[in-house]
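From the pipeline queue, job 12 of 40. The input is one protein chain; the requested action is below.

Action: predict structure.
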Amino acid sequence: MPKYAIALDQGTTSSRAMVFNHEGRVEAVSQKEHEQIYPKPGWVEHDAKEIWARCQEVIDEAVEKAGASKDDIAALGITNQRETAVVWDRNTGEPVMNAIVWQDTRTDKLVDELSADGGQNRFQSKVGLPLATYFSAPKVRWILDNVDGAREKAEAGDLVFGNMDTWCIWNLTGGTNGGLHITDVTNASRTMLMDLESLSWDDDIASTIGVPKSMLPEIKASSEVYGEVKSGALTGIPIAGDLGDQQAATFGQACFDTGDAKNTYGTGNFMLLNTSTEAVQSKSGLLTTACYKIGDQPAVYALEGSIAITGALVQWLRDNLKMIKAAPEVEELAQTVEDNGGLYIVPAFSGLFAPYWKSNARGVFAGLTRYVNAGHIARAALEATAFQTREVMDAMEADSGVKMNELKVDGGMVANDLLMQFQADILGVPVIRPVVAETTALGAAYAAGMAVDFWSSEQEVRDNWAEDKRWEPNMDAGKRDEYYKYWKRAVTRTFDWFDAGS
C-alpha cells in the first residue's frame, strides 16, 4: 500500500520536491535554487535546462530522504511558476533561448500594439485577463519574432511551447522519446489563449497574437492520471496532478467552497477567491482564472489578485542593498523601530500588477527624510506587502460582493510575525496560518493523490487542514485609514514613470 504522495514544486527562485503522508504532513523535502538572469533592465530569464536538472536532483533526494521505495509512492503532482514561457524543439529537446519569466516586461511594446485595437481588455471577456506583459502568449510571440529561424520552425511544427509544468512533464515522461506535451486548465488560463468557458485554445486570439496553434499543449484536468515517469527514482510512478502554483496553494488550503480565499506570500503575492463554477468577470482590476478541475467534474473558477513584488523586495534589500545577510533578518531589523518613520516603498520593479495593470510604472521610496534609517526601510518593505494585499482584498470585495471575515495565508513570508500582525491590522480581519504553510506543494500532492484514490475526496483534504496560528487586528480604524491614505498617495507616484513606447 502506498504511504506517500510526492510533489514537484518548480518555483521562481528554486525547485523542490516534497513528500507528504496521508495526513498531509511533510515527510521529506529537497530544494535547490537556480540562476536568475537579468540581461537588461526589466528583463528576467531562467535557463530551462538548469531547472530540469535541479528538478531531477530534488526528486531523487527527497525520495531518498523519505526512505521510500517506489511502492510507497502513490503519485506525483506538479506545480509551477505560472506564465514563465519555454519554447523548445520537439525533435532535439533544446530550448531555443532561455525561458522568459513572468516578471519580464520586454513585451510592453507588443502589448501596447495589441491594445491599440480594442484596449487593454480586448480579450478579457473570453480569457479573463487584461493585455499585460505578465502572461505567456506575448512572450511566445516575442521569442518567435526575435530568435533567428524560430518563426519558420514553429510554423513547420518543430517548436512547442509550455509553461514550466509542461516543460517538466514533457521531460519526466520521456522528452524526445514520446514525452507528453500537456498542461492543465489552470496553467492554460494564464497564457491569454484559453477560452474560460470551453476550456479550449481560442484560434482567433492565438492568430491575432501570432502564436501557431501547433505549438500549444493539450489541455487536461488538474487531477487525472496523465502518464508515468520514465526515469530516475520515480520511474513507473503515475503523474496525476498539475496546477499552477497559486491554484495549487488554494487547493492545499482546502478552499473548496464558494467565497473561500487564501493569500500566498512568496516572490510575489497572490490572493485567490473561489467563485465556484462561475467565471466572474472583474470590474476592479482582478483576473478571472481557472482554479482547478478534478477529473470529469466541472471546472471551478477564481478571482485572483496578483502582486508582482513582495518577498522579492526583501531579496532586493539583501542582494542589491546588502542591508541584511539572509531574508529572515528583515524582521529583526524592522523591529528596531516603532513604525515606518513616514517612509512608504512601492516596489513596482516590473510595473504594477493588480489592481492597476500599469507596465510603465516603476518603484518609488516616498516620504524620505533625514530621520529615516535602515530599520524604517526594512519596516516599510514589509508593510508594502501588507498594503498591496489590502488593495487586492478591497477589489475582491467590490467584485464579489462578499465581505471577507478572515484570510488564510501561506508561503515563506508567513513565518514573519511582525508582517502578519501588520497584515491583520491593515485588513481589519484575522489572518490565519495553517500547520503546513507550504501549501503549494501540498495542493499538487493532493490533486495527484485524489486522481489515484490515495485521498478519496475533497472532504479528506478539508479534514487534514489544521490551524497553526492566528493574528487578530488590534490597530484602531483611524490609524489604519491614515496609513492607507499615505500608501495610496505613494502608489500614484509610480504611475507612467516612462512613456509607453519609449
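Job complete. The two ends are 61 Å apart (CA to CA).
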